[in-house]
Amino acid sequence: MRRHRRYAAVLAIATVLVAGCGRDTDGGQDEARSVAAGKAKGEITVWAMGTEGEKLSDFAKAFTAENPDAKVTVTAVPWDAAHQKIASAIAAKQTPDVSMLGTTWMGEFAKTGALDPTPTDLIRKDDFFPGAWATGVVGGTAYAVPWYVETRLIFYRKDLAQAAGITSPPKTWEELTAMARALKEKAGAESGLYLQPGGTGSWQSFLPFAWSNGAELTKDNKFTLDSAQMSEALQYYGSFFKEKLSTTTDLGVQGSLEQSFVTGKTGAFISGPWHIGLLSEQGGAGFTEKFGVVRMPTRKSSTSFIGGSNLAVFKDGHNRDGAWKFIEWLSRPEVQVRWYRTVTSLPAVQKSWDDPSLAGDPFLSEFGEQLKSAKAPPPITTWEQVASAVDAEIERVAKAGADSAAATKAMQERASSIGTGT
Description:
44% of the residues lie in helices and 14% in strands. The chain is an alpha+beta fold.
C-alpha cells in the first residue's frame, strides 16, 4: 500500500539531535499567541515533501497575489530525508517558518519545544475532521494544522460479489467474512479479502478493526494493548488467514496487489484513495465500473485509520505571523478544493467536501463519510517503535496462527518496556 510507507521514519535520530537544544521539552505546556491583524508581509520559508513540495510554489502565487508584500519560498524535501532534515534543523535552531510534518511525527517534534502552538484566534478546530485535528494535539495543546488527509476503505469487485450472490456491500464483521468467503468459494478468488499479513505498516490495516471493537491504545498515558477488545479484534483479523480467505504473501511488498485485484485473484482489500487511480489505470477501459468502495464494517462503530500530513510553524522561524497567515489561507475551504484539484490530496477541512467535485464522486464521497469517524494512533514520541512490535505480533498471528490473546499480551509487554516517551 503506497502512502503509509512514506510516513514511516527512523525514530531514534531526532531524540539524539534535539536532546541538547536547551528548550522546555515537556510539550503541551505552551500557550498559543495571537496573530497580528492585516495582510502577510515578508518572506515565508516553507519545507514541503513529495508532490506537495513540487507543486506548492506555483500554487502559492495566489496567496502572494492577495498579500503583495509577502513572498513564499518553498523548498522541496524528499520524504525519505525529511525526518532527519527537520530534526537537524531543530537542533541547530535553523528551521524554516513552516514545514509539513507526517502525522506520526507530531509527538516527537512537539516534545522538543520547537513548535509554535496553533493560534486559536486564526485557526478553528471545528473546521477540520476531528480525527485529523487530533493528530496535531500533544499534551492538550495543538501544535499543527491538518493540511490533507487520507483514510482506508474496503475496495471490492462488485461484479464478482454479484456473481457470488452478494447483493449489498458488507456492513458488519459477519457480513465482511461472508463476502470474503463467497468471493473465494463462489467467484474463484484466491483471497476473498486480502489483509496485510504483518510486516511494516500492517498496524494500519489491523487497528481499524480494534477501534471498531471499542479498543483503546492508551489510557492515562499507559498502553492498553492487551484489552479483551484488542484481542478479539486480532482474533477476527487472524481468522481470514486461518480460514484461508487471505494469502499470507505480502502482495504490497511484491507490487502485485493491483494486478491481483484486476485479474480477480483478490476479491477485496483495504487501502486509501490513491488506489482509485491506480486500479483505473491498470484495469483499463471500463474497469472502474467493476469495483466499488465501502466503509469499514461496524462492530461497535465503523472506524478507520486516518493519515495525511500536517503543517507546523517553528519558534525559530523568522516570520511567525506570515507563516500562520499562509496556513490559514491553505485551510480555507475553497483553497483546499483547488489544492485537491492540483495534487488530488483530500481536504482536511470538512466544508470543502460540500464541493461537487468531492461530494458528487461515488468513490470520494465514501472516503468523506469515513473521515468523520477515522482515528489515528496517539501522538507519542515512541509510536513507530511500538508500531513495529504490533506489526510483529500481527505477523505471528497471520502466518504462524499464534493465539491472539498471547499476541496482544506480547504487544503490551513490549510497548510498556518502550514507554510513551512522556
